[in-house]
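Worked Example 4.2. Consider the chain below.
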Amino acid sequence: MPWQPNKLEAERLEKLRELEARGVAAYPARVRRTHSAAQAIAAFEAAEAQPEPPTVEVTVCGRIRRVNIKGKLAFMHIEDESGRVQLFLRINDLGEDTYALIADKLVDTDDFVQATGEMMRTRAGEVSVLTREFVLLAKSLSPLPVIKQSVLDDGTVVEYGEFNDKETRYRQRYADLAVNRSVRDTFVKRSRITTACRRFLDDIGFLEVETPVLQPIYGGAAARPFTTHHNELDQQLFLRVSFELYLKRLLVGGYDGVYEIGRDFRNEGVSFKHNPEFTQLEFYKAYIDYRGVMEITERMVAYAAEYATGSTLIDYHGQQIELKPPWRRVTMRDIVKEHSGIDYMDYPTAELLEGEIRRRGMQVKPGLPWGKLIEHLFSDYAEPKLIAPTIVHDYPRDISPFAKRVVGDDLHVERFEFYIGGMELGNAFTELNDPLDQEQRFLDMAQTFRAGDDDETPLDEDYLRAMRYGMPPNGGFGMGLDRLAMVLLDQPSIRDVLLFPHMRDLK
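Applying the procedure from the previous section yields the following structure tokens:
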């Protein structure tokens, strides 16, 4: 449907036509900038401190945030990513034709402009650009939305106005970023979290790699995939749900430690902590087990927190959480018993455990396998209480197809997940490297879970072939970087740390 401008937009369209009539390019092909706003101010303040201050000439660019016209003199604040700077505009410096663009209000708040001149300090003390050349760079046809605030008597800040609805802001993230510096700051810090994890792994000898996004067989996680079709090859493909099986192939190929940071895709529900596509970090390292992975995990998360926020002590949902190692480590059996009162080892079959759960008046979906019943008890009764960083280890074998058995225990494997703020952030194993055991696990999973179940794990013969060449003992790890950002930056929803979250269709 063609754009139907509202009243304000129609007025700006008229201004665009007037600019064209005056021979002014509203979207010129060339732009020049010598300093950001912050650099221009810093350069002037450095010069100002000298005994004989030199002239500081700059060309700055930015979006107009405020204009104050006083006859033949005008003040204008422009903003770029680094901050704001004031332009000091006079008709005598700019000439009548250029100044008329301002005086006649043909340039508006939200337009992008370029200003050249020397830095100065006004009588009011504000560092400004004494502008001698002023160029329109891009005309804004739609005014940016406004978020208005009022402060109640108890100090509570209430937002109102046309852009206070968070869903609208998610759908128009570009506008959200333009009017909310705090949102821009969140994504700067989120980027620093990713940088920190990459730097940490690089510094301890890992190699960053890339593996296929389109895969002929999906695997490495209990998740339902998205499917697509390659027309030329007439081949069904899947968007990856994990990097795992490809990264472990690289250990077979001779690398000691590899990692990947990228997008995974899972055809699952949407919630405050789930999005169909998300950013995952996975690493695999030869010659360590899951206890070695625990140590790397603790150090990496603490490093990322300090790099991104300046401290390992974070605030999340009103609670202070210290991320410095060591973290609490507890078995799945002990944590479930602690919070649900059930020692599941007293009920070694699914029928017995389900019966005990129901006997205690707890709700559970009928017919779940033994491991899924344990997972249910943990998720409902223990997980929400794990506020301080906690490593939960030794998971049921039947929900962990790629991990080695705990020595002397056929029911549990060397797997852990770690929790901060009552939310699972990562998953890790002492990886299975016995190809015969792995093949049997695939077959067992196929019998345990129905075809099409979210936990279905297809048998990957090529992966088994790679294992038969010989895979070194190794530890593996996967972490959702979006969830880590939620916790480190105290954000209530995964949508608050995704630039463009998936949204339902508008009706």
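The CA atoms of residues 196 and 396 lie 33 Å apart. The mean pLDDT is 94. Compare this with Example 4.1 before moving on.
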